[in-house]
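Postdoc handover notes: sequence design on the structure in folder B. Input tokens:
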């Protein structure tokens, strides 16, 4: 068998075999991807502290502070109470990585319609306390919302009427899960830009949103595939969500699901896949909206649909309460 003559000092390698330097670079990229996946999964539930944002006073709205201490682990949740003409109250849960300042437009919309509004910073967000927890995040966030609802129910100014929830993105599944945790039924839940029917697949897509920000060696190939896989697995492990979607059979709470036709974060099919579990739920795909901004891009229809849905839900809940009182 003939062999090619060698030039002095030349080293021949088998075709396809990587050089030690290339192999080291590949291993380094994989390690970096794994570390970043773990870091970003943790930051999903523990985002960096944000600067204080605008408040209802910037929109000329009345506001007073409300502080809620969680029953599970004594984390302090910072909230705004924006009293309206009453009697009903809407609790707003912002999206992951945001703060209650991000829902000022919705606060103004609901206040103008006459409703009391309570908006709070989720744990590890905004002005609320921070934890150092790595697990059971689903239970923690759901318990927090239950504590906020209990505090609102006890409030003499805003707790006398019916209550509804508006959740955005991450908070939409919390808003559904909490319904089995509260004694008095919630009149309505509006799920805006969420939740996801396949949470693990949705998290893999969410990981892709960071792709352009990753170091170059992690953006492609095996390193990126590992990053995406680990981000989803670690995020799911930390979330520890169970019984999804929740069984809400027998509850009188009315549901509305809103998707954005242009949403690059959570696909319409993911949201409507959850809505399919609740045949009586209302559903709407805002044609111009992206993620959590249907009020901005489809303002007139959003106002008509959401306010109409809440009005009908409050009326139905009030009628049920009157009927229950009538029958002792």
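Designed sequence:
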């Amino acid at each position: 068998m003939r062999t090619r003559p060698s030039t002095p000092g030349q080293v021949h390698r088998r075709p396809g075999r990587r050089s030690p330097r290339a192999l080291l670079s590949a291993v380094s990229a994989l390690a970096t991807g794994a570390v970043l996946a773990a870091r970003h999964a943790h930051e999903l539930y523990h985002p960096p502290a944000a600067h204080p944002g605008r408040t209802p006073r910037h929109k000329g709205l009345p506001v007073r502070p409300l502080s809620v201490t969680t029953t599970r682990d004594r984390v302090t949740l910072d909230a705004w109470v924006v009293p309206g003409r009453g009697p009903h109250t809407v609790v707003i849960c912002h999206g992951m990585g945001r703060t209650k300042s991000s829902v000022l437009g919705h606060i103004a919309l609901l206040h103008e319609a006459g409703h009391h509004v309570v908006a709070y910073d989720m744990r590890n967000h905004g002005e609320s306390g921070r934890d150092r927890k790595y697990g059971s995040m689903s239970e923690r966030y759901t318990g927090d919302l239950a504590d906020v609802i209990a505090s609102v129910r006890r409030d003499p100014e805003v707790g006398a009427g019916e209550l509804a929830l508006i959740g955005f993105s991450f908070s939409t599944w919390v808003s559904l899960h909490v319904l089995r945790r509260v004694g008095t039924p919630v009149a309505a839940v509006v799920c805006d830009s969420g939740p996801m029917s396949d949470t693990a697949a949705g998290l893999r897509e969410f990981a892709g949103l960071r792709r352009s920000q990753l170091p170059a060696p992690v953006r492609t190939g095996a390193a990126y595939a590992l990053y995406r896989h680990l981000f989803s697995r670690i995020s799911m492990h930390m979330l520890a969500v169970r019984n999804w979607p929740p069984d809400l059979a027998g509850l009188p709470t009315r549901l509305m699901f809103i998707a954005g036709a242009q949403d690059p974060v959570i696909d319409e099919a993911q949201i409507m896949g959850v809505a399919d579990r609740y045949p009586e739920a209302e559903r709407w795909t805002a044609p111009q909206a992206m993620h959590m901004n249907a009020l901005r891009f489809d303002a007139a229809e959003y106002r008509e649909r959401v306010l109409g849905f809440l009005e009908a839900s409050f009326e139905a809940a009030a009628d049920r309460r009157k009927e229950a009182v009538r029958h002792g």
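Context for whoever picks this up: The mean pLDDT is 92. Don't rerun without checking with the PI first.
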